[in-house]
Design a protein that fits this description.
With 284 residues, this protein is mainly alpha-helical. The chain is built from ten helices and no strands. 73% of the residues lie in helices and 0% in strands. Helix 3 runs antiparallel to helix 4 and helix 7 runs antiparallel to helix 8. It folds into two domains: 113 residues; 129 residues, Four Helix Bundle (Hemerythrin (Met), subunit A), CATH 1.20.120.
Length: 284
């Protein structure tokens, strides 16, 4: 009888938790995070990005095995099969926690089919290996790419003693101040805010070159500089419509275009790297 009550309470607890999660499903984000051992095969711990190179090799080797199996070029088929086998098993050497995810049976079947020159067997074995790869990619690829390949701006330093995050907030404040002053007819305030914004943009550009190593200046580029000049001209003697158009163009060029890639990736990276915020989760 005691076991009956115990099992009943366990089932009741599971039902309650499941109900709470379902009710708040819009607040719950479930994702799989990779083993910590994967980090040593990505930057900054690994300068060669060895995990990525191993994945690229596997993709190329699967293609080569399929090609030479159907073209009956046996010597090349053997060469690429050997490389595929080596780099497929390399996965568990690099991340031992993923050993059980490998389909070694499919790999053995591939090797046997290649040895027997069985084209259909090779094709079926490759399909199984692709299924093995795709199942892991479905669970981890987006998370891993976000964690290890999205930019990390926490280490970026400005030439002035201002926190990077606070500097970005200041740029947004200046853009909005220009808009407010423009609509309220405060030309001097708008021009003063634009002057601060120009200085902030130049300061921001010094950080962009740390990653975007190009001969031509990336930020602000020629188009941005021209738009700033147009905005300054319109704030001095242009119509409200001209001011709004120039400011809108500038906001897209200096803010939205970069945020559309960098900020989205960075925010997602923080979710995976920092882990769940239990206080916020409990609050929800």
């Amino acid at each position: 009888m005691r076991w009956t009550y115990f099992i009943f309470l366990q089932c009741l607890l599971i039902a309650v938790v499941g109900t709470v999660v379902y009710i708040h499903k819009d607040k719950v984000n479930v994702h799989k995070t990779p083993p910590a051992s994967l980090a040593k095969w990505y930057k900054p711990e690994n300068k060669r990005q060895e995990w990525l190179h191993n994945m690229f090799k596997l993709r190329r080797e699967i293609q080569a095995v399929k090609l030479y199996s159907t073209s009956n070029e046996d010597e090349l088929l053997d060469k690429w099969t050997a490389q595929l086998s080596k780099h497929y098993l390399r996965i568990s050497e690099m991340v031992p926690e993923w050993d059980k995810k490998l389909d070694e049976e499919a790999l053995t079947q591939l090797q046997t089919s290649v040895k027997n020159r069985d084209q259909q067997g090779v094709s079926l074995a490759l399909d199984d290996l692709n299924t093995s790869c795709n199942s892991c990619h479905q669970d981890y690829r987006s998370t891993v790419a976000t964690m290890y390949r999205a930019p990390d701006f926490s280490s970026i330093k400005l030439s002035q003693p201002v926190a990077y995050k606070e500097h970005m907030k200041a740029l947004i404040t200046q853009v909005n101040q220009i808009k407010i002053a423009s609509e309220d007819g405060k030309r001097d305030v708008a021009l003063s805010s634009l002057s601060e914004l120009k200085h902030g943009i130049q300061l921001q550009g010094e950080t962009c070159v740390q990653c975007h190593k190009k001969e031509t200046k990336l930020y602000p580029d020629v188009e941005m500089t021209q738009t700033i000049a147009n905005l300054e001209q319109s704030l001095s003697n242009g119509t409200l419509k001209e001011q709004g158009k120039a400011l809108g163009t500038l906001a897209v060029q200096v803010c939205a275009s970069c945020h559309g890639t960098h900020r989205i990736a960075y925010d997602n990276r923080k979710v995976f790297v920092d882990g769940p915020n239990w206080r916020e989760l409990i609050k929800h």
